[in-house]
Amino acid sequence: MIPFDYRRAGDAETAVAAVAGNPGAAFLGGGTNLVDHMKLGVAEPDLLVDVTRLPFDSVDPLPGGGLRIGAGVRNSDLAADERVRTRYPVLAEALLSGASGQLRNLATTGGNLLQRTRCGYFQDVTTPCNKRRPGEGCSAREGYHRYHAILGASPHCVAVHPSDLAVALTALDAVVRVRGPRDGHGERAIPAAELHRLPGEHPEWDTVLGHGDLITAVDLPPLPMAARSRYRKVRDRASYAFALVSVAAAVELTGDVIGDVRIALGGVAHKPWRATLAEAALRGRPPDRAEFRAAAEAELADAQPLRDNRFKVPMARNTIVSVLAGLTGEEPR
Amino acid sequence: MDADITLTVDGERRALTVDTRVTLLDALRDRLGVTSPKKGCDHGQCGTCTVLLDGRRATTCLAFAVAHDGAEITTSAGLGAGDGGVGAEPAHPLHRAFLEHDGFQCGYCTPGQICSAAGMLAEAEAGWPSAVTPDVAERPALDEAEIRERMSGNLCRCGAYPGIVAAILGVAEGRRT
Amino acid sequence: MTGLLRPSAVGRSPVRVDGPAKVTGRAPYAYEQPVREPAYVHPVQATIARGRVTAIHTGAALALDGVLTVLTPENAPHLERGIDPELEILQSPDVAFRGQLVGAVVAETPEVARQAAGLVRIEYERAEHDCVFSADRTDLYRPEVVNPSLPTDTSDGDVGTALRDAERTVVATYTTAMTHNNPMEPHTTVAVWDDDGLTLYDSTQGVHAMRESVAPVLGLDPGVVRVVAPYVGGGFGSKGTAHAHLVLAALAAKRTAGRPVKLALTRQQMFSLVGYRTPTVQRVGLGADPDGRLTALSVDVVEQTARIKEFAEQTGVPARKVYAAPNRRTTHRLAALDVPVPSWMRAPGECPGMFGPEVAMDELAQACDIDPVELRIRNEPETDPETGLPFSSRDLVGCLREGADRFGWRRRDPRPRARLEDGWWVGTGVASSTYPVHASPGTTATVRISPDGRYEVLIGAVDIGTGAWTALTQIAADALGVPAEDVHLHIGDTDLPEAPVAGGSSGTTNWGSAIVAAARSFREKYGPDAGPGDEHTASTAENPFAQRYAMRAFGAQFAEVRVHADTGEIRVPRLLGVFAAGRIVNPRTARSQLTGGMTMGLSMALHEESVFDDRFGFVVNHDLAEYHIATCADVRSVEAYWRDEHDPYVNPMGTKGIGEIGIVGTAAAIANAAHHATGARVRDLPMTPDKFCE
């Protein structure tokens, strides 16, 4: 780790200016991913601007019935929030399925969204990785890629985004509020589904944010159907492990058919994957396993698994079916 | 680059100068000689470095000391010791329960397990749900399954989990009655 | 031998002697030993798998404030060659595996040492490396012996013909993964040179063993090397032999003019420097008559070793010992690769070697339509199948029967894929377990009475979590005929009488026998009225029964498994083991040893795999986030019971060793239960959800 300066930001404007003015600077939130990467040499900031004392540490009601989650709200506090638990259970479940109790007490909302891939080659600076050093090549494509992408990957990168929170927010049509060096005193709003990007030619960019952009809050829209939602994470251990695949979903029945449905997948792509094809296939259809399976298959029709992660296609399909069946009162298989 | 900070560790106020790169864990172990929290992975992946940080359980290996200037830290050595500082004998019900249920073997993960358990019991008493709570909207009942999930951030390679869970359950039930 | 010790303290369950210090965190492990103004060492590792260092640029590192020295192959102190290639670090520019030590920085702080290590720039001449482990390689070779010094191959009768003629056969290939011990305490050495010599505060399973390994490499008389290890955060074999970092710490301390140095490996570094369990490929053949009586049994093993140093895991050995069969064969072949050096991991040989054969037995039970417990009972041998010697005691059948009763085996519907509960397939399985009784004659202990009238017992044993602090205190109390409170034990230091490693489940056998020998001769010498200053030292002799009896512990492992019908997630709600392992010294700590082994077996079954990328020659998932060991949530009911076994031949305590048998057979029981649950026969570990998701 190289030596770095540490500053504690008093307000957002100063924080943004401090980072924007120094290409080697980074924001420090809970530190659970950044400090990890600094020890590994994956990140080498020479200035850390601590944003944990900024006044972004509360969850507040929005006019119209939504919630504004401050970027500094700790994952554990957000998961324990009564309003989140009753109105957006998918969000509480996603948070609780991530990391561990003692890490969730440190990790922040904004930092969780900006955590970086767990790809073993990305995390080991002695191996080539296009995400770390563009142009070096991708070690995972022909290497260890059991956890890697089956959707939306590029020849340059097959990494997946590890956040559970981001998957739930994508399903909920949440909006990420950002303050950047060019935003003056204002903020800009980015739909959660558009925050992260596919790797394409530039796997080094995880998100659409630029240097100095600071997430200040995440807005949850009022979404009555989210009261019936859930997050299901399939992983190699019963706890404290990253997803093989995960599914965030909410379903609203209108009479005997599905009126509205939201589905997002984790562990399958470089970004949380909103399953719009599956959603379209399900609207107006009866809630049964055959329909769920057909919809899941429609979503996964373009999947391009790698040598050692073909299992993710049936696993994602089956998990979608299992979650939707649970939400609509279908008996387990 | 150095910074002057103050930490209150197990009731004792300590002033120190640290390189900004020093984690809270290394500040405790290397600078202050407080070796109750252990280093098992240094990356937030095992939980052996868990302490109560300003009253909540937290891994100390991924926290820079400079970012926690002024923090109050309780290690397993200080747990249950009250204001009198660290005593000579295990003072907390969790200590005694871990001894009785043999909730450890090599002992290296144990101070972290015990701090984690103390923090976890407070979380459960506050009504926080977990990933195995059947309905996160409801207040969870702290049973074995809940304890297992909530303690999963503390790895134990000796495999003392059944004793750990029994010890914590015993303390939790003792508090309820 | 004058008969078995009369138990008084032995058989009781006092809490751990070292418990209070451990639960509060005050027990000082190696890194925490009080030394003045230590400097810190950070290793530099090779980033190629084979070749040589052609240039090493240390200028940038040395220019850093706080750097004391940089060790390289060009400037490192001389070591004796030809003793142990794993320990001969920095003596040549050659690189034999990725991750090998090629340098180190010594600095004022750990942060500076680590930063400087990153600034050391190395140029290499790469050579073609070969890290591809496969049973199909054409250059597999036959080692002279397998660990520790057992025959590589055995053959009785004619397996080929017997298999061909058998009415029921199972011939299948089973694999176990490369796995890493990963004790929670990383390998750590604090080294101090002073006028008296070299002191090493080390995280080790054996103080004398480390001294015997490291002193000759350093060109030192063992008498000037002291190794201290009062508390050790687990080892599971990886701290049982000296590894390169121990030598590196000594070399670094040689350069700091008496100033202590601390070297704690990072978790990532442990994946290439402190040993691991080789992957194995086991070709198993079973032939039987329709009643399930074995006519043929063969186990042909392929595994890997490092080109730099041979380690031949004895995977085929347990198959020589467990079941009767007139025609039998075991073989071991090795692939020598440009990989880190494999070594001991909990129950080497026995643990992987009871996976393939015990799953094959389950397949044979199915082929014969016989209950798998009954099948094992039918193949119980009268004597050691390999040597024909009688067993000093053997109660596998008792373990199977008692386990079946306790587990509720009789209610089992034998049909696979027959029970679906709440979306989970449910099944149960069984496997046998075994572990040999090891003994090292020449283990020494001293008994003396201190000025304050307490009995002091001194022995260079090490407690790595086994409970030795407590069990040895109990044994000493009974051997001296005094209450345990009157015994003060001293362990973990080469200044104490010589004792072998905590390994091979032999700690209590060796150390306990030495304490009994010392206590008995102390009593013979001084009588019951010994007083302060009286002291006596004794060593263990060769066990006269060692050549007349086969000595082994046995056990039966039962598992319940649930597999999610949609996702393939696999859970183990219940493990139950019954063991016949001689007398149990302390039921409290013994239960933890057995259930801890079973838990590690569960972890091996479901989670553990070091994913080796042979293009680079390294383990990709080299941390505890990606190398999974079982978490608290993965481990539900784990029960261990033991048979009341009286074995007068093994040692004066009647103990057989319990540290390893718990891990043996667990993975097979779980695999068999998973098959019973789902109908899917998984022959390759670990059994991750993808293997059941369809």
Automatic annotation (TrEMBL), chain A:
GO terms for molecular function: FAD binding; oxidoreductase activity. This is Xanthine dehydrogenase YagS FAD-binding subunit. Coiled coil: none annotated. Signal peptide: none annotated. It comes from Prauserella shujinwangii. Keywords: Oxidoreductase. PROSITE patterns: FAD_PCMH. InterPro entries: CO_DH_flav_C, CO_DH_flav_C_dom_sf, Diverse_Substr_Oxidored, FAD-bd_PCMH, FAD-bd_PCMH-like_sf, FAD-bd_PCMH_sub1, FAD-bd_PCMH_sub2, Mopterin_DH_FAD-bd. Residues 1-225 form the FAD-binding PCMH-type domain.
Automatic annotation (TrEMBL), chain B:
Keywords: 2Fe-2S, Iron, Iron-sulfur, Metal-binding, Oxidoreductase. Residues 3-79 form the 2Fe-2S ferredoxin-type domain. The keyword Cytoplasm does not apply. CDD domains: fer2. GO terms for molecular function: 2 iron, 2 sulfur cluster binding; metal ion binding; oxidoreductase activity, acting on the aldehyde or oxo group of donors. Pathway: Alkaloid degradation; nicotine degradation. SUPFAM superfamilies: 2Fe-2S ferredoxin-like, CO dehydrogenase ISP C-domain like. The keyword Calcium does not apply. This is Xanthine dehydrogenase YagT iron-sulfur-binding subunit.
Automatic annotation (TrEMBL), chain C:
It comes from the Bacteria. Residues 24-128 form the Aldehyde oxidase/xanthine dehydrogenase a/b hammerhead domain. Residues 1-22 are annotated as: Disordered. The keyword Oxidoreductase applies. Keywords: Molybdenum, Oxidoreductase. GO terms for molecular function: iron ion binding; oxidoreductase activity. InterPro entries: Ald_Oxase/Xan_DH_a/b, Ald_Oxase/Xan_DH_a/b_sf, Ald_Oxase/xanthine_DH-like, AldOxase/xan_DH_MoCoBD1, AldOxase/xan_DH_MoCoBD2, AldOxase/xan_DH_Mopterin-bd_sf. Gene3D superfamilies: Aldehyde oxidase/xanthine dehydrogenase, a/b hammerhead (3.90.1170.50), Aldehyde oxidase/xanthine dehydrogenase, molybdopterin binding domain (3.30.365.10). It holds the Pfam family MoCoBD_1. This is Xanthine dehydrogenase molybdenum binding subunit apoprotein. It comes from Prauserella shujinwangii. The lineage of its organism: Bacteria, Bacillati, Actinomycetota, Actinomycetes, Pseudonocardiales.
